[in-house]
Every structure is written in C-alpha cells, then in structure tokens.
Amino acid sequence: MQNSEKCHENVWILSGTSDGPIIADKLLNLNYVVFVSVISYKASLVYPKKDKLHIITGKIIDEIEVHQFLEKHQIDLIIDATHPFAMQISTNLVKGCKKLNKMLLRFERQSQVKSSLNSRFVEDLKGIKISDIKNKNLLLAIGARCLNEVAEYYMNLEVNIYARILATEDSILNGFSSCIRNSNIAILNPSKFGEHKLEYSLCKNWNIDYILCRDSGSYSQMIWEDISEKTNIKLFKLRRPIEKRIQNIFSDYDNLIKFISKI
C-alpha cells in the first residue's frame, strides 16, 4: 500500500546492519524518502538499492553534526536504531532533535532478561566476581573500545584472556594494540543465520571457561547464549544502560511503522 499523503516526509535512520535494512525497506515501501547513516561502506551494502534511499557513510561526531544533517536534508523524523551501548550518538540525537523540535523514535530489541545456571548479568565489565577465576580462560566479546582496559583488569587477577573482535578497522586496530596476545585474538563477524560453528570451535580450542558479552539483543549475544546453554561455559552479560529522555521506544518493526504512518 502506498502512503501517498506521507511521501514528502524525509526519515533519517541511524543503525547497523541488523535492524536498519528492515526498517528502511518497510518505509520505502510506503513511499517515504529514507536517509540512512552507517559507519562503513561495507555496512551500506546490506541495504536495498532504491531511488528514495540515500546512504551516508561515516560517524556523526557531535550534536552540531546532528543539527547540520537535520537542516541540510530537511529531515522530518529520526529513528535511532543504534547499538544499545552507543550512548554518545543517542545523547547527541536527543539534543539535536530537541533544538529543532524534531520527533525522535528509538528502536531496539528487547533485553534478554532470562538467566540460568550458566548465564547471569553483571552491572559493569569488571563485575565478574568468582573466587576461583585465577588461571581460568575468559573470552571477551565486548567490542574493542574498552577491550584493553578490561583485559588488563582481569589479567591482573591472573586470568587467561582471549578476545573475539569484529572485522572492522577500529576493532582490529584496538584489538591488536591491546595487551592481549595476538594469538589469543579472533577476528570474526557473527552470522545472522544461526550458524556458529566457528564460535563453538574457538571456545573448544581455547578451552574457554567464561564468556563476557553485552546484553545488546544482537546475533552475537544469541550465539554466546546458545553455546553457554549447550556447554559448561558460564556466560556473563553486561546489563544494557537505561534509555534516557526518549519517550517513544519500539522493539517490534510493525508497531514502529504503524506509529510512523499515523503521524
């Protein structure tokens, strides 16, 4: 069904490769003009190629850039579908939208609140409290930004540290410049199709005792949860930060689109 009354509206989506393409495609089918911001050219390749879709590559640095983007492209509506832990860009979006009186919507997958004998939440990346952690093997799947600091902390507790990093320029640079031995680092992007043979093999070959990841709702988290459930590996999930100052938050694609179509 074509949304002819809304075809003049410009929607700006900030997202990665999981939720962004689905949201963009649904809006394009309703005749919206869609702008998508992604970090890298590689991330842009998963989006549909349509006339009313405009891909912008690169980081949005601060509130000023948000403000400039909104004005330059005459954006009417913004969808923040960035990673739950990407707090800086989300904060800048809130400030920029408020200044120009633009509507900001938030999309993120529901937090996986389930816990089991093999899985529990921690409140910070240094929050694993186990008396016999010394000489155990810990796999860090936490991204690369805080990798060195977290690795160093557990190394000081005499834990053997391993890391899974994504195949991005920043991740690789941060990973191999960290205190972790190069032979203990694996560059691997998670599969969207439920296949995690490589992750399972890593854990097996490295004799991993514990995994630390983030409660992002991502494919990566689902993989670690599955591995933990099928093995004796204990999984620790960093609890996601609480969303601030965003009134409209969605975790279902259709509910998001239905809300937008009624604006």
Report on this structure:
By secondary structure, this protein is of the alpha/beta class. The protein folds into two domains: 4-110 and 243-261, 3-Layer(aba) Sandwich (Rossmann fold), CATH 3.40.50.720; 119-238, Rossmann fold (3-Layer(aba) Sandwich), CATH 3.40.50. Helices cover 32% and strands 22% of the residues. It has nine helices and twelve strands. The chain has helices at 20-29, 41-44, 63-72, 87-100, 147-155, 169-176, 197-205, 219-230, 253-261, and strands at residues 10-15, 33-38, 53-57, 77-81, 103-107, 119-122, 137-141, 160-165, 185-187, 210-214, 234-238, 248-250. The strands form two sheets. A six-stranded parallel sheet has the order 3-2-1-4-5-12, sandwiched between helices. The protein has a six-stranded parallel sheet with strand order 6-11-10-7-8-9, with helices on both faces. Strand 7 (137-141), helix 5 and strand 8 form a beta-alpha-beta unit. Helix 3 (63-72) packs across helix 4. The radius of gyration is 20 Å and the shape is elongated. The two termini are 17 Å apart. The relative contact order is 0.15. The model is unreliable at 1-5 (pLDDT under 50).
In the CATH hierarchy, the architecture of the largest domain is 3-Layer(aba) Sandwich
Mean pLDDT: 87
Helix content: 25-40%
**Under CATH, the topology of the largest domain is which?**
Rossmann fold
> What is the strand tally?
12
Proportion of residues in extended strands: 15-25%
Domain module tally: 2
For this structure, what is the CATH class of the largest domain?
Alpha Beta
Going by helix content, strand content and strand pairing, the class is alpha/beta
What characteristic shape results from the CA principal axes? Answer: elongated
